[in-house]
Specification:
743 residues, mainly alpha, 3-stranded antiparallel beta sheet, 26 helices, 14 strands, elongated
Length: 743
């Protein structure tokens, strides 16, 4: 199955009041002239419908016209040339290590390493050890000071992309989307209140009352006060629901709708714990994204009451003036879809098309029940969600969600590879095995053994593997989330004999999977609301002749460079990127291009120049500068949030009854790698993720996770034993003449 991109309806171009464009466009807030989006420019003209209709005169409340002459347009997708993979022929000269490491030129620098760690270097060419460093760049800065040859890892640039992604998203939410959400919710309450007062049909009036309660819950979550004319019964329902949302204690029957809701999902997590405003936004958007309006009940029978609720919601959205209705909805939805993908469930725009077909361009809400037979014929043509919870009481039938949680491919994989009683919890390794990692499949068979737990695992796995491995590059890069995953896939391929010694063993494959999983945990953290479950110039000492090395995976650096460039260009075109952030991203792109060149030269058997080695020597300072500037601080220690200063983050990625699969990264780990340069072997040091995955009795916040790491950290996944010594090797000694950049 190829995931079809949802089409977002351009109601704002043809509804009442559309002639006056919204003064609320994000581009205007950034002091730019409003421009049509890329997708609008590509819309074909409709015969006889080239002109935008003017707003009609106001009509009586019960019979107001809704212009449902609808054109579709895509959501906010990545607009760029399709990525083209590199053609690589590795030609690294062969080298070997003496058992006692006596042929490593600078081994005397590392008296801190234990015998066990030295043995792992002798066997695999590298070893990973834990540290208590709160950020990866601290290890590289320590390298500079202690004149240690640096090993630039994929982890270090992935961490920087995570900081950019997370801060960009939260800034958009704080500066623009929080206000949009407040205005949209107020508008929906206003429109539904008018309809409630004018409705004559009892079924319709009851549905409007419940939807007033629905938007009342979102209003309370946002800190809004319910209007004075808000129906008392709806207010009571809203307050009962909001109490459960605030408690966030687990699965319970909804007092408003009757079906079960997993209320623990409303626990504020991710970067949304950083401010009250973001916390309110999280709960309101979670309410929009989690609570459904199903068209069928658990037994597959029509749920006509719920269908009426969906219809009145869509009509109210369409009847609102465009700048306070569909334009706001579209701005929130399309912006977040660029970061996290399209809704997995049916959207209001899709239901609006059915409403137009069945109820014409001038629908009367009182007539809704009389044409439900025709409406259900339209529903039968609508798509089904791909991520369906296997949990008793949770509605999984076709349903509309006002701002549905997004389809993310890894959630589909985790969902399809679980079974409530035989295999209730998946693992992150499932994801990369499906994507095509041979080593991940081997680890599943050797350690996790899912085929022995569940006889349908192999069948489901092969279907998913066929589905995802046959996707085109375009299908794998439709939004930033998918583009990030596409970068991670390049880390998990097996290499041939032309690659360096340390890469040609299963331990390196395991380390690379740990890198991919660590970055996957970060993207799940950054999109926890939206994803549907399952340098400065320095004047210091003269540069010493210290050799550096870049993880020799130019394809990875090329993919991340493409993703970063595409992100900048698309956000700029949309008017969602400030000039200061644009220049920071350009600096990041320059760094990625440099690292790609270094990696390419290494694989081609070429030595790096002294200038390139000096740039690698100061890599830690460059990394901290970019991290700090993206976080809008002159130095990392000035970052406002203590939680943000620490790289440890966590995300719940799957739910089974009242337990949750958590994926996270801890403090920085260090990696010692034996590399060959200028015909000699040197031991280098770099920084990598420390990946954790475990089942928890509660959904964890970053603050709770960072405290747990201090007090009682969980066991690391068993596959890390092949490359990681779980005891710290201690501090590398400071040389007699440490190096200073003068910064």
């Amino acid at each position: 199955m190829n995931k079809k991109a949802l089409l977002v309806l351009s109601i704002g171009m043809i509804l009442i009041s559309v002639g006056a464009c919204s003064a609320h466009e994000t581009s205007e807030r950034l002091n730019k002239e409003p421009e049509p989006s890329v997708v609008e420019e590509s819309l074909p003209e409709k015969d006889g419908n080239a002109d935008i209709p003017s707003a009609p005169d106001p009509q009586p409340k019960g019979s107001r016209q809704v212009k449902m002459n609808l054109d579709f347009k895509p959501g906010f997708h990545i607009s760029s040339e399709e990525y083209k993979p590199l053609t690589i022929e590795a030609k690294v000269p062969a080298y070997s290590l003496n058992a006692d490491l006596s042929n490593i030129e600078n081994m005397d620098q590392f008296s801190n390493l234990t015998q066990e760690q030295r043995a792992m270097i002798s066997k695999n060419g590298f070893v990973v050890t834990p540290t208590d460093s709160q950020q990866l760049f601290y290890i590289y800065e320590d390298n500079t000071y202690k004149k240690i040859p640096g090993f630039v890892t994929a982890d270090s640039v992935l961490q920087l992309y995570h900081i950019f992604y997370d801060y960009s998203l939260r800034n958009l939410e704080t500066e623009f989307l929080c206000d949009d959400l407040n205005r949209l919710n107020e508008s929906m309450i206003r429109e539904l209140t008018n309809e409630y007062q004018d409705a004559d049909n009892i079924e319709v009036k009851d549905s409007i009352r419940k939807m007033l309660g629905y938007f009342g819950v979102a209003g309370l979550a946002l800190g809004q006060k319910l209007p004075e004319d808000f129906p008392a019964e709806a207010a009571d329902l809203a307050r009962q629901e909001y109490d459960l949302v605030q408690a966030a204690s687990g699965k319970a029957a909804s007092p408003m709708f009757g079906f079960d809701i997993e209320y623990s999902l409303f626990k504020i997590r991710g970067h949304y714990t950083r401010s009250d405003e973001l916390g309110k936004y999280f709960r309101a958007m979670s309410w929009y994204g989690i609570v459904p309006m199903p068209f069928y009940d658990e037994k597959g029978q029509r749920d006509e009451e719920s269908a009426i609720r969906a219809i009145v919601t869509v009509m109210a959205l369409c009847k609102a003036p465009a700048d306070s209705g569909v334009k706001l909805w579209e701005n929130i939805y399309s912006t977040t879809s660029f970061f996290a993908g399209e809704s997995d469930d049916i959207t209001p725009y899709e239901v609006a098309q059915a409403v137009q077909t069945v109820y014409t361009n001038e629908p009367d809400m009182n007539q809704i029940p009389h044409k439900l037979e025709d409406f259900y014929r339209e529903v039968e043509q609508m798509r089904n969600a791909d991520i369906l919870w296997k949990m008793e009481g949770i509605v999984t039938q076709p349903q509309m969600r006002f701002m549905g949680q997004r389809y993310i491919p890894d959630s589909e994989i985790l969902q399809e590879l679980t079974e409530p009683y035989k295999r209730p919890f998946p693992c992150g390794m499932d994801v990369f095995a499906v994507f095509g990692s041979e080593r991940a499949e081997e680890i599943l068979d050797e350690i996790y053994q899912p085929k022995q737990q569940w006889d349908k695992y192999e069948e489901n796995f092969r279907k998913l593997a066929d589905q995802f491995r046959s996707q085109t590059v375009e299908e794998q890069t439709g939004n930033l989330y998918n583009g990030w995953l596409y970068c991670l896939k390049s880390l998990t391929s097996r290499v041939d004999s032309g690659y360096p010694l340390f890469m040609r063993n299963t331990a390196w494959e395991d380390k690379s999977l740990s890198t991919a999983l660590g970055s996957w945990a970060e993207i799940r953290h950054d999109t926890i609301l939206y994803g549907k479950q399952s340098g400065t110039e320095c004047g210091g000492d003269e540069p010493p002749e210290i050799l550096g090395y870049v993880e020799p995976n130019p394809e990875f650096f090329n993919r991340l460079l493409w993703l970063t460039t595409t992100t900048r260009e698309n956000l700029s075109d949309r008017g969602l990127l400030s000039d200061s952030m644009k220049y920071k991203m350009l600096d990041f792109e320059d760094m990625l291009d440099f690292l790609k060149t270094c990696a390419w030269k290494e694989l081609n058997g070429e030595d790096l120049s002294l200038e390139e080695h000096y740039s690698l020597l100061t890599y830690g300072g460059t990394l901290e500068y970019l991290s700090s500037s993206i976080a809008e601080a002159s130095d990392w220690y000035l970052v406002e949030s203590d939680t943000d200063k620490h790289m440890a983050v966590i995300a719940d990625v799957h739910t089974s009854d009242s337990a949750y699969l958590e994926a996270g990264v801890g403090t920085a780990a260090e990696i010692y790698v034996a590399v060959s340069q200028y015909g000699k072997i040197y031991l280098t040091r770099g920084a990598v993720f420390d990946y954790y995955e475990f089942v928890s009795g509660e959904r964890l916040t970053d603050e709770e996770w960072q405290e747990q790491l201090k007090q009682n950290p969980p066991q690391r996944p068993p596959f890390t034993d092949s490359f990681m010594d779980k005891t710290s090797g201690g501090e590398v000694p400071v040389p007699d003449e440490p190096y200073s950049t003068g910064c």
